[in-house]
């Protein structure tokens, strides 16, 4: 194994936190009211999603982790705080906003098949006052972390002003930042150390259709030009992970052989990169570690996580 992981590192996640709500049931009849299936609920489950899934991956690796995010002033906010407390996360970085709702994605599943997903969310940018509250918290606490991971789901938290403040603070304290971006405008991430889009996001941001090695390199160079970042990492599913930095373009082939569910794989890669880079690994070795961690996760159902023993086992095999 060409990597080392220091579980004493402290990682901060900043991003769009949400609840993944699963409703499991049976379906044996059609409603007499409308031509729709009737689901008899057996059980329900509430899990942290979005940036919360990045946090869960960090906890699964056994390192210290915390999160800064905004939720609504509603009953679902209590679920978020309860889930955080269950993982020994204080929730001091969670800010309630009366103008928003806590984002929740409800999925109805019958025999492991999803019938429908219902989303409740407000995606407008947070207010100036809320930006300042979050920044004030970060000014006090960000220095206590070894690396900062930005998990952007484009739900309104990560405004250009807040992002600029985060990157300025991290540069001041010598803390590396890795961004999992969203949307086509990557200019708002100017100041980050590493940008980690998937191939579709990289195409949208660069305006370059990635179809071969040369166009991949051009897209990476364009993203680097737009953001001023030190490195670009593009996840490409079955085509592996691309790394673009001062050494040029490298591609690590995928390690995933048994793909069951790719849900949350990007969150696993972000968490894995953060842990590995903060532990002092090279960018290549960190990407190799993340590649193996993602291979573990996609072999499971749902937004799963990987443990260090599971990743080690994947390396050995």
From TrEMBL:
GO MF term set: heptose 7-phosphate kinase activity; heptose-1-phosphate adenylyltransferase activity; phosphotransferase activity, alcohol group as acceptor
Location of the Carbohydrate kinase PfkB domain: 10-306
Keywords, alphabetical: Kinase, Transferase
Gene3D superfamilies (alphabetical): 3.40.1190.20
Domain of life: Bacteria
GO cellular component: cytosol
One Pfam family recorded for the sequence: PfkB
Name of the protein this chain belongs to: D-glycero-beta-D-manno-heptose-7-phosphate kinase
Organism annotation: Mucilaginibacter psychrotolerans
Gene that this sequence comes from: rfaE1
